[in-house]
Amino acid sequence: MPSTALTQHDPRPVSPLHTLLRPLGLSEVQLRPTGFWGQRARVNAENTLPHCLGWLERAGWLPNFDRAVAGTLPQERTGREFADSEIYKLIEAYCWESETNLSQHLEQVITSVTERLVAAQDDDGYLNTNFGRPEQQPRYSDLEWGHELYNYGHLLQAAVARLRTHGEDEFVAMARRVADHVCETFGPNGIQSVCGHPEIELGLMEFSRATGVTKYRNQASLFIERRGRGTLKDIEWGRSYYQDDIPVRDATVFRGHAVRALYLAAAVVDLAVDTEDRHLLGIIETQWENTVAKRTYITGGMGSHHQDEAFGDDYVLPNDRAYCESCAGVASVMLSWRLLLATGKARYADLIERTLFNIVATSTSDDGQSFFYSNTLHRKTPGVATGPLEQSKRADSSQRAAWFDVACCPNNIARTFASLATYLATAHDDGIQIHQFANTDINADLRGDERVRLTVNTRYPHDGNIAIVITESGTEPWSLSVRIPDWAEGATVGVNSEQEEVQAGYFTITRAFTAGDVIHIRLPLIPRLIRGHDRVDAIRGALAVEYGPRVYCIESAALPPEHHVDDFILNPRTQLDVEGDRIIVKGWLEENLAPSWPYKAAATELSRPRRPITAALTPYHHWGNQGPVTMRIWLRTINNP
Amino acid sequence: MPSTALTQHDPRPVSPLHTLLRPLGLSEVQLRPTGFWGQRARVNAENTLPHCLGWLERAGWLPNFDRAVAGTLPQERTGREFADSEIYKLIEAYCWESETNLSQHLEQVITSVTERLVAAQDDDGYLNTNFGRPEQQPRYSDLEWGHELYNYGHLLQAAVARLRTHGEDEFVAMARRVADHVCETFGPNGIQSVCGHPEIELGLMEFSRATGVTKYRNQASLFIERRGRGTLKDIEWGRSYYQDDIPVRDATVFRGHAVRALYLAAAVVDLAVDTEDRHLLGIIETQWENTVAKRTYITGGMGSHHQDEAFGDDYVLPNDRAYCESCAGVASVMLSWRLLLATGKARYADLIERTLFNIVATSTSDDGQSFFYSNTLHRKTPGVATGPLEQSKRADSSQRAAWFDVACCPNNIARTFASLATYLATAHDDGIQIHQFANTDINADLRGDERVRLTVNTRYPHDGNIAIVITESGTEPWSLSVRIPDWAEGATVGVNSEQEEVQAGYFTITRAFTAGDVIHIRLPLIPRLIRGHDRVDAIRGALAVEYGPRVYCIESAALPPEHHVDDFILNPRTQLDVEGDRIIVKGWLEENLAPSWPYKAAATELSRPRRPITAALTPYHHWGNQGPVTMRIWLRTINNP
Fold first, then answer.
1. Which of A296, A307, A534 sits opposite B306 (nearest CB)?
2. 0.80 cut: is pTM over it?
3. Disulfide-capable partner of B320 in A316, A400, A584, B621 (CB 3.0 to 4.6 Å)?
């Protein structure tokens, strides 16, 4: 049964059959523990992984499996329908991390958790702590909300990580039984429906790639083609919530629950690529394009509704209640990465960068032990923070929380940081492509066997200089491509010191490189004032500040005590002075007037007392790290009553 | 037991013990079936009442009571937890209407429905179709969401209407058993909690006034003082959702679910007034003031969140997803009316007028047979309308719907229109106060027995002229006060033709009136450009148009085909030309560009092709009556990329 693919060490989460670019795995790209991303990956390994494991035990979600074995379910079960998936996501993170750090401890966690999971699996492959026992609802009786297949999707992704970093073991065997059970139960002659939360499609696609078993991909294809035809129950928010409103081939934009929409789209790209269905790929490209133009925040955040964690209509992007779930940020990166591999277009890497710096990096605290669930653009009230041992609802204050009732994000962030190195660079037969800038050591075989090694060195985004040092190369010419970000006007690239100005997009140098060659990339880091599309109501008459790939914000901590960020008006002709990691702007601080009816005749002359002020803006990803505050990204420049 | 109050014919929904102003009942104010409000009241009586009754039968919510008797609950029960209340609200409407129209048919509906309700009541007074039977949840086992006490509140309000228009009967007797049961069960020695949806407090307060039974008021007081102390379970949206976060005496603004907050506040005013607790009254005045200044839309609409139908933080008033539930409009009128009676301040009557014209009038169609649940300020997509026999979710398109799954609004609107005449004028010993302008015949006894009669004649709001004709008066001087709306700059008032300019607020004429005296009020109807407080993000750089008490909007039907209202830019120096009920404005129509990343460097020069256009604005209350459209109230005047 196991094909030869199984024994291949292939440590990367996405490994398509036919793409333009080949993703480089963790054995080909090493992220050194320095610089912006290297430090975060280290904090993730040292703090976030054990933090999440501790919470999964404490919250009882991992013990649910022990209780299943002990027969004390459903009485003792804790957590929501998708609690099982959190263990799988964290195991995925441990697997990727075990590739980077050959620590005995990581391996022990994986094997001991695996034992507990395997013990709870039914003989026919079914595995879920929330369904199927006496006094529990029957299996697959609530496809809308039950999340059984969703949970499997994450289990399969974890199994892919285990298989590609370690090889066959009990976890992988458990996953094979699950995948077979799914094909049996939901195949052409099985239940003709889909899961309320797409994710099984992603799991089956990649597990098919990792195992070489085609039926898993066929099952993913069945799920994808079934969706959108009203199989699931209608709900108050409409079937668009779970993308069961329109078949994927007929849709033109992402809609409904953002994480659901993005996971589904990512799986569709996998299917399109592996089946060489260019038409289907083009459909997702169009949906991505419309969504990015009309339904995406400046941070790259997606999903504007609190109610259903969903995309809004076109240009419905309020800041006050921006949802921008951390998991939607992860899902957006997963989707754009697949599109980048398939097409090689810089716009996908640009959005990945924006999302990594402004959503993924924002969602965790400096110490990697507290998290935002949603990433609003405007925090009106400081809110009440929860303690380090307290389970928050959804981190609904200006402070990150240690754990949530719905704790999808911490584990999603954990697996993303543990595999971050695989999202930075790609190769093809003729060369290497650098998409994101971090301190990395890269090695890859070109044309099958021509080993190339290089090192990327940078303080980016604190500095716009990136030096790529070739440390090993054959004698044949090959191509090194570097993404020049869309914002980097006036960027220059030079090999061994001859700098030339280059445009945004990929700049490619083709030559016979020699060990010791240095490619210098200079991205001009100049803070930028940004205005938004005026169909986005909430940002009319307001400006934002960007600096390199990062969006900035104002926190009330930067203002005199007792002042709210909404008291601040930006001078639209302000200078932007860089001071360390902060940007100093000029504006005015308004005093409040007594409350009165807020709508006045347009001609009324009213002025609130105000005085000039300079204020320091913070990188958005770092907001809320200094205690309770109010915060906003878009700064108003005009004044009404 | 029954006190003398019972036999007193007193047809008004609110009858406080101690207030500055005495509300005039339906026997004192007759709304003639002409003019803006008279026509609506007629359509309500002729169309809305039978429409709602038909739906209560068809949806099965009234038959639930028959099923209770037949013993086929819970299997055959239909509707939500609060379905019982809809019957009570509609019976309240029928009772008020029966005062105006002494029709045999109305009386038959009331008595036949009463029979069906009474048959389902338990011996101890408990009455609910959703709890307490085998296979149903036990009584009062879900105070958070069960709505048992909420349902009673509406039952008691209906009983008040019945008692005051007709006198003691089976409905009133049923209500007495319910009220006694509530006092027994939730009294000082009973369950120490409250209902998740305030409303029982309002019902008990008024039922106490109508019956003279003080213990009902005491029970209302208990409920009011218990709330805010965390008796109810915490939920994802927080206990503010049901105002169980802060005791009412400690709060400074309305928060949480808007209808819940406003019903509670209205009951608190009742309690404060009847117990002469000036301090408590002042607390609600402050909460009202802060809410109106910071949490209210230009339409008077309240509640900006879809998620929890709740007030947002200060100045969180997005237009795209404005909720502004019709029932919150009704509740706001109920609250402001009580505050007006208690204080005589014009601001309460001003907000009532704004809310009646722009929320209550908006919520129904011309034919009174379809309704909006929420009253958004910006409709981005036309949506899919439901048919006249189709039950909509919550009228989630640009078209009003015949009925909703949660159909609180149609019956709430029905009872409001049926009692509308009682919200127009008041009296005290020395005179009469006209708060709202409609074609009415008013009679009242001043100083106990001095009969005064007058007639109000107007085409308002289509015309700013109001003529008040004195048709009967004693020889002693008395005062006629007329509210000059806050927007009516340059208004004049004259008795028998001598006009003098008056300020906003109440203008009082004290004299010995003679039959035949005519008081002319001239409100200058000039369309006004309005700008909003710039802390409301969504309306920065935008203007609205008001005309008299009405807010205007643009519908896509006013633009060339295929254009969206968001394509329109208002010329901030436009003339405002009145053309019938429409206002013609000048502006530009923009063409769309291909989709691209919507955030650009502020210095970028980008212009979309645009051309001058004139467009006709519609009164907001009349939008969506001409078929599927997009719509917006706030018109942008500036242009970004």
1. A307
2. yes
3. A316
